[in-house]
# Entry
Amino acid sequence: MDFEDNLDLEEFLFVDRQCRKCLRTLSLVDHFYKTRPDRGKNVSAYSYTCKQCQVKRNAANRKKKKIWITEYPDW
# Structure
């Protein structure tokens, strides 16, 4: 195990980020989703909205009532 690997990991674990939606400052690793799994462990690989806000947004989008046309227009 190299000393450089431990140093990079420690700097990465203690990064905090402010959520754009709720404006709370939270831990980056614990409270934010990665944008893509292959992005690595860069700080830029994580989204800007926290997990709680993301779940609320997804639930609200699924609950939106869709308008279905049950009758064809009379042309």
User: Anything to note?
Assistant: The chain is about 35% helix and 20% strand. Residues 51-63 form the longest helix (13 residues). Residues 3-63 form one domain.
